[in-house]
Specification:
Layout lengths: L4 E3 L2 E3 L11 E2 L3 H8 L2 H19 L1 H40 L3 H16 L2 H4 L1
Antiparallel strand pairs: 1-2, 2-3
Length: about 120
């Protein structure tokens, strides 16, 4: 296959495998990019822009948005604290299972079996 030659805005492809390919105009390249653009993303960005515009111009939406942001922040804080607590409890229980004391090993094993056996929804 020969190299691509350029002639006054046209990209010409030379012969390949016994035939020739039609000339493709270089100025159509932006339209090919536009055809591959995900329109759902443009629609989502438009909706986000409209929502942000409403939030920034309307006092009621601003109040609601601030409450939602505070709620999300509190949720993330509680999640981090719960994760750290569960990690600490799990580590302590596992260390108890490694001790040589039979009573501690049996107590830790009982706790693990109860926690594993009860469905998560019941624990919540």
């Amino acid at each position: 296959m020969k190299n691509v030659e350029k002639d006054r805005g046209f990209a010409m492809v030379a012969q390949s495998a016994g035939g020739t390919l039609p000339q493709v105009e270089a100025r159509h390249a932006p339209f090919r990019l536009l055809a591959r653009l995900p329109y759902w993303l443009l629609f989502a960005l438009l909706i986000a822009f409209v929502l942000l515009w409403n939030i920034s111009t309307d006092d009621t939406y601003t109040l609601i948005f601030n409450a939602v942001v505070a709620g999300v922040g509190m949720t993330l804080l509680v999640t981090i604290i719960a994760y750290a607590g569960a990690l600490l409890v799990g580590l302590v229980v596992e260390l108890l299972r490694w001790t040589g004391n039979r009573f501690l090993v049996e107590a830790a094993t009982f706790y693990v079996e109860i926690i594993r056996g009860v469905p998560m929804l019941v624990l919540l």
